[in-house]
Amino acid sequence: MGQMVIEKLLKALYAKNNVSAPYAPKSHDLMYLAQKINLTVTETKKLYLNEITRFNLNSRYDDCKREFSRKCTDEYTEEQINKIEEVKQWLEKLLKGEN
Which pTM does this prediction carry? Predict the structure, then answer.
């Protein structure tokens, strides 16, 4: 769900910044969407966006799901939730026009 939240926020930013053509690209790749918006993204956030993008793939396909579920320890999950929350707050500020 975290990947979906970030994807929808990026697509909302795309629509906000492209009023004449507000339909965001049909992609789940978060860095690709950020590039289409011309966001300035730190190296840390690039890593986060690329990692969060993989959640979409890992939750879709059975082989990936099994492998991914083994990786999802409590510690790993908490770390990823914190990253998603950090990116979410950043994007929400951008949507509100805050820097």
Answer: 0.85
